[in-house]
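Comment thread on ticket #2218

A.B. wrote:
> Attaching the input chain for the structure job we discussed in standup.
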Amino acid sequence: MANEVQIIELLGNNGDQVSFTCAAGTAIAKGAILKMTDPRTCIINSGAGNVLCGIAAFEKSATDGVTQMSVITNCIGRCYIEAGKTATLGSCVRVAATVNQIEASTSLDQETGKALGVSLETGAATELVAVRIKTL
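C.D. wrote:
> Ran it. Output below, let me know if you need it in another format.
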């Protein structure tokens, strides 16, 4: 995997970690942006407009047999901006079509669980920007 979120500060109660079910045979990198599937299961985000559950708190191997994943829902992290996209200070951001990358969003995404958080910096394509990540 590449372009994982680099968590720089945990907020709330140690990042407000929440437990989700995950597939035993799936590898998940620490810092991966995860989306939610039914029932209360997390998988690696695969595109724009998904309902997000947070950031993977630890590395999960495909052969470790683990079926529970701790997901960080409240932190500040450095995120990569997708090629051709931007992020503006104070604007809402969501995941882009490229895994673990972000793009500008709309307030509607916040209402539907698709927003990752708010950009704390202005940046252009392929740059890292600090994002106030708040999911769930």
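A.B. wrote:
> Thanks. Noting for the ticket: Residues 75-134 form one domain.
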